[in-house]
């Protein structure tokens, strides 16, 4: 394994330190594993410490980090192969990239912190042996992709490709007026992890909230050059986002305030004007987000929502032109929007009729007994979004093909109330647990529940007799092959026009 010269110096220093303090470590090794495994020992950037692994729980260290810090961890084992796990302040595994299946004496881990706070480092033996080790924590420099200049005006779309390739923008605040920066997710279930840095890399904003699909940041008057970084967090890449910079609370964000001749006049002056020629494009009719669906009907699931401040290319239509197919996410994705809530611009006379997948045939009829506390009422006038009947769902996370001890999966669907399919069932399981560590291997199952749509406050997730709401999480510890499965019921428990797309993210971590 090739190490950076700086890392080699620290490893040599750590080895020297280990030899010097070997006698002292032998005297205190009986207390190290118990104390460190429960409470941890403080470790600062640039420090070297001696530790001891005397059991499967390993040794625990903690440090204080800032969003954007690159934590570089090096562990040199003596007589055993170390394995490193990084945990956040709630003791949830953030990254386990080195389970050290090659059984090397040196293990390294590098991770860019996505929020300020306390982090924990757990050092264990990959080959079930015991021994001493030297640990070093360094603060590296994050290698970011080139920043995209962001100017005040219409919204722009971007892509968060991976943990190493976040979306990065450079922008300036206004010297005499307030500056607003809007960040919006276009990927279902993805909550953007937002960091704003000063020219000296000072963290001005750090936002990581799974309940939020986007936010608008407001900066006080005063010119300053800033950098926006949008990370993935724990989301599976890639993720599509939209970013918009405006000056002043009443700024016109769509360019010219006067529409070109021949275009459909927007009903709101803040909406963007549409061209009279060229590519057929589309924008919202009112100043509110519009649903994009997988097919030309409200019976199809919602994929994303489009912003009132953006313009989208039209690539298809249905037979009666009541629905249009557009591209979004940099042109990599396609979906359908209703003509009733949108307006057209450009040359739309030759838009072709697009094909689409028919709705699946229902295989399960919703039960006739409503959940406790729910009263069946007639559908109110104007309810346009109704979840169609569907079959039960299966969420299987397979541990057998994983090189590390952590893997994840997700599943999504919609429920509505008072009409339509008001409840869904997900049967979950973890396969091939023993493939990871042999007979007796245990794992932890962590579920995160996210929702988008109307009425998210009345959605309930029922698992093992417990109730959770949108934005909550649920953990099942000590899971083995004999208890690796269960059921989650998702219910719309009220509302007069409830229509919610739910997503369940399941993460599985090996415990031993």
Description:
The chain is globular, with a radius of gyration of 26 Å. 7% of the residues lie in helices and 44% in strands. Strand 22 (312-317) and strand 23 form a beta hairpin. The strands form eight sheets. A five-stranded mixed beta sheet has the order 1-3-8-5-6. Strands 10-12-17-14-15 form a five-stranded mixed beta sheet, with no helix packed on it. Strands 24-23-22-19-25 form a five-stranded antiparallel beta sheet, with no helix packed on it. It contains three helices and 34 strands. With 512 residues, it is mainly β. It folds into four domains: 5-140, Sandwich (Jelly Rolls); 148-247, Jelly Rolls; 256-357, SH3 type barrels, CATH 2.30.30.40; 393-510, Sandwich (Jelly Rolls), CATH 2.60.120. It has helices at 5-20, 22-38, 433-437; strands spanning 41-42, 48-53, 59-65, 70-78, 82-87, 93-98, 106-112, 117-125, 131-140, 148-149, 156-160, 167-172, 179-185, 193-197, 203-207, 214-219, 225-231, 239-247, 281-284, 290-293, 302-306, 312-317, 323-328, 333-338, 342-345, 393-398, 406-417, 423-431, 443-454, 459-463, 466-469, 473-479, 485-492, 498-510. The two termini are 26 Å apart.
